[in-house]
Write a structure and sequence with these properties.
The chain is of the alpha+beta class. The protein has 2 helices and 13 strands; from the N terminus they run αββαβββββββββββ. The protein has a domain of 113 residues: tt1808, chain A, CATH 3.90.1570.10. It has a 4-stranded mixed β-sheet with strand order 5-4-8-7, with no helix packed on it. Strand 12 and strand 13 form a beta hairpin.
Length: 166
């Protein structure tokens, strides 16, 4: 049986009911509101990246919800709302009334129990880069040593400082 791929037009018709809707390759995804720990991690990440953005003016750092339409076509079949996103100066033209038309410079997604497929107790920071149309793992970090997320040199993000104390 053939499935009909949902598009941005279908997405626009969804109810404004407070739920978080996304379309991944034409399939609707509805996620619950974030947990306390998720929001705590998100806030810490946002503040840390905001310091970097302040020292490197020209781009803009944004917080969810904001639609990222991964195609500039009206029949786009992937619309997501990353937890945090950064649009560099070279991509500012992608901003529109619909949100961001195309991939931002940085998209941060905090995995929650409903979205992760790995060990739920893993406290790992992973960063992926786009190479030849595919995303590859650039950084996987844990612990107390500062790391950068490509291409953000000087970010010095300490993974262990992101998670709430146990």
């Amino acid at each position: 049986m053939s499935k009909t791929a949902l598009t941005y037009r279908d997405y626009e018709a969804l109810p404004a009911d407070g739920r978080r809707y996304e379309i991944h390759d034409g399939e609707l995804s509805v996620t619950p509101s974030p947990s306390f720990d998720h929001q705590l991690i998100s806030g810490r990440l946002f503040l840390h990246v905001a310091k970097w953005v302040e020292a490197h003016p020209g781009g803009v750092l944004l917080y969810a919800p904001l639609d990222v339409i991964l195609s500039d076509r009206p029949d786009a079949t992937s619309i997501v709302q990353p937890d945090i996103l950064y649009i560099g100066p070279d991509r500012m033209a992608q901003a529109s009334r619909r949100g961001v038309e195309g991939g931002p410079t940085l998209a941060i997604e905090i995995l929650s129990p409903s979205t992760r497929r790995i060990d739920p107790d893993a406290r790992t920071l992973e960063a992926f880069e786009l190479h030849g149309g595919r995303y590859t793992l650039a950084v996987a970090a844990t612990g107390t040593e500062p790391v950068d997320l490509p291409p953000f040199t000087g970010l010095a993000l300490v993974p262990d400082r992101l998670w709430p104390d146990q």
